[in-house]
C-alpha cells in the first residue's frame, strides 16, 4: 500500500515516518522546497526524541521519501493524509480554525488523482469539514472515485513516536466499508497489539479530537485554580492533586499545576471548540472559562515572579530556565514564556534565558534586550532571581549550592514544582512554588 502525507509539520512528519516503520511505502509532501531539501538530507525539521533515527532507517530501507511534487507523489497512491496546519484565525473570524490549507490540499489532490483514492484528514478540523472536502473534490474532479475519512491524531510532543506506535486508541470516521477496510489494513500492526480501533461517522471523529483536548485542558485549568486556592488557605496542591488523582473517575494525569497549557493543540483547539459551538447556536461555557483562565494564568505567574522580588523588578536581572511550552520539544507555540518575558521586560527587568532546544525558535518570537545564554549556570550568574519555567531533565538536579553562589540574592521561583521546599530551605534559598507555602 502506498501512502502520501500532505504537510511535513509535526503531525505529517511523525505520521509519515511511523507509517513507514509499519512497512508501508510513504511519501511526505510539502510545498516548502527548503524543508524538503533538509528532510532529504536525513535531518528532521522538528525536534522529537527518536524521530531522526527512525526517519533515517526507513529512508535507507527505501520505504520513506520526501517530495515537493504532490501530483508525482500521488501516482499509484492508495491513501492520502491531509496533515497541514489549521491555526486559529486572527481576522474578523477570530478563534475559528483556518481551513484554507486543508481545502487547498483537497482541491490539489482531486486534480492530481486519476484512480480511487481515500482522502483522510489528520489535521484537527471542525465537524462538517469532511463533507466540505467531499464537495471540493467533486467540484474539482467530478469523475474521481474517492472516499473521505477522518483520523485525528493524539500525539503528545516529546513522546509522539510512542503515542503513534502504542496509542490508547485509534479513532477513524468513515462513511463506507471500502474506506473502513483500507484504514483497518493501515492500522493492522496496532490491532495485533490489541489497540482499540474505533470506527465512527466522520463528524463524530472530528468532534472527538476537540472534545478530548478540551477536557484535558479543563483539567489543567482546574488544577491551576486549585493551586491558587491552596496558596491562600495554606494547603499543598501536590497533596490535593494526589488525593484527587487516586479517584479512578478522575485519574492523576494532567493534574500538575504550572504556568498554563500551551503548544500546538490545546490553545487553538479549545478556542475552536468555543467557536464551533457558537456556529451551532449554543455556548460551551465551561470551555470558554478554560480559555479565559489559561490566558490569565500566564499573567498571574508573572505577578508571582514580581512578588518574589518584593513587588518590584525594575533594574533586576531575572534568569529564566526553559522557554518551550513543555520539555522534549522545540515548540514555542503559546508558551508561557511568550507572555512572561515581555511582561518582565515591560516592568524594566533585565532577562537572561536558556533552553536546551527552544533557543532558535524563541529568538524568532521574542524581542527586546534578552541575554541568550549557553547553559543553565551561565543564565543565573549574577542574577537576582532564578525562574524555573520548563521542567527539562537537566533542570531537575541543579547543584543548589552552586545556584546560591551564582545568584546575587538566593531567590528561586519554581513554576513547575520541581523541587521540594525542604531542600531549598536547607540550601539557604528563598523558594517560591505553585500552590505551596513559600520557603
Count the E strands.
14
| CATH class term of the largest domain | Alpha Beta
Helix content: 40-55%
Radius of gyration: 24 Å
What is the fold named in CATH at topology level of the largest domain?
Answer: Rossmann fold
Strand share of the residues?
5-15%
In terms of structural class, how would the helical and strand content be classed?
alpha/beta
How is the largest sheet built, in terms of strand order?
3-2-1-4-5-6
Cα end-to-end separation = 60 Å
DSSP summary: helix tally: 18
Largest sheet properties: 6 strands, parallel
Architecture per CATH nomenclature, i.e. the level-2 architecture of the largest domain: 3-Layer(aba) Sandwich
Q: For the record, what is the CATH homologous superfamily label of the largest domain?
A: NAD(P)-binding Rossmann-like Domain
How many independent structural domains? 2
- Nearest-integer average pLDDT: 96
Question: What is the subunit organization of this protein?
Answer: single chain
Mass-distribution shape: elongated
Unreliable stretches? none
Amino acid at each position: 500500500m502506498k501512502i502520501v502525507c500532505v504537510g511535513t509539520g509535526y503531525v505529517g512528519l511523525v505520521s509519515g515516518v511511523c507509517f513507514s516503520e509499519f512497512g508501508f511505502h510513504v511519501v511526505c509532501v510539502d510545498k516548502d522546497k527548503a524543508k524538503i531539501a533538509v528532510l532529504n538530507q536525513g535531518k528532521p525539521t522538528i525536534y522529537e526524541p527518536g524521530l531522526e533515527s527512525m526517519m533515517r532507517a526507513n529512508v535507507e530501507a527505501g520505504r520513506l521519501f520526501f517530495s515537493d511534487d504532490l501530483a508525482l507523489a500521488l501516482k499509484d497512491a492508495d491513501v492520502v493524509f491531509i496533515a497541514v496546519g489549521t491555526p486559529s484565525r486572527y481576522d474578523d473570524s477570530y478563534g475559528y480554525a483556518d481551513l484554507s490549507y486543508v481545502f487547498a490540499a483537497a482541491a490539489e489532490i482531486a486534480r492530481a488523482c486519476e484512480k480511487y483514492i481515500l482522502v483522510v484528514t489528520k489535521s484537527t478540523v471542525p465537524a462538517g469539514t469532511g463533507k466540505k472536502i467531499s464537495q471540493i473534490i467533486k467540484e474539482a474532479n467530478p469523475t474521481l472515485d474517492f472516499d473521505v475519512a477522518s483520523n485525528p491524531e493524539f500525539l503528545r510532543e516529546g513522546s509522539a513516536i510512542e503515542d503513534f506506535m502504542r496509542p490508547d486508541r485509534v479513532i477513524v470516521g468513515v462513511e463506507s466499508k471500502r474506506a473502513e477496510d483500507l484504514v483497518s489494513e493501515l492500522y493492522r500492526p496496532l490491532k495485533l497489539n490489541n489497540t482499540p480501533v474505533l470506527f465512527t461517522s466522520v463528524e463524530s471523529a472530528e468532534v472527538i479530537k476537540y472534545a478530548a483536548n478540551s477536557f484535558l485542558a479543563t483539567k489543567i485549568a482546574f488544577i491551576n485554580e486549585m493551586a491558587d486556592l491552596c496558596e491562600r488557605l495554606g494547603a499543598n496542591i501536590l497533596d490535593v492533586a494526589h488525593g484527587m488523582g487516586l479517584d479512578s473517575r478522575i485519574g492523576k494525569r494532567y493534574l500538575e499545576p504550572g504556568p498554563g497549557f500551551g503548544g500546538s493543540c490545546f490553545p487553538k483547539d479549545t478556542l475552536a471548540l468555543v467557536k464551533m459551538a457558537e456556529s451551532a447556536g449554543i455556548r460551551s461555557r465551561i470551555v470558554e472559562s478554560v480559555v479565559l483562565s489559561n490566558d490569565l494564568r500566564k499573567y498571574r505567574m508573572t505577578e508571582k515572579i514580581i512578588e518574589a522580588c518584593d513587588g518590584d523588578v525594575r533594574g533586576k536581572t531575572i534568569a529564566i530556565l526553559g522557554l518551550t511550552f513543555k520539555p522534549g520539544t522545540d515548540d514555542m507555540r503559546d508558551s508561557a514564556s511568550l507572555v512572561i518575558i515581555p511582561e518582565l521586560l515591560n516592568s524594566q527587568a533585565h532577562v537572561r534565558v536558556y533552553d536546551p532546544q527552544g533557543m532558535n525558535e524563541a529568538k524568532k518570537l521574542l524581542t527586546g534586550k534578552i541575554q541568550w545564554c549557553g547553559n543553565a549556570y551561565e543564565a543565573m550568574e549574577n542574577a537576582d532571581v532564578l525562574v524555573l519555567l520548563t521542567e527539562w531533565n537537566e533542570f531537575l538536579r541543579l547543584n543548589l549550592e552552586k545556584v546560591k553562589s551564582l545568584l546575587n540574592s538566593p531567590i528561586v521561583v519554581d513554576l513547575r514544582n520541581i523541587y521540594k521546599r525542604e531542600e531549598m530551605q536547607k540550601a539557604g534559598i528563598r523558594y517560591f512554588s505553585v500552590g505551596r507555602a513559600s520557603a
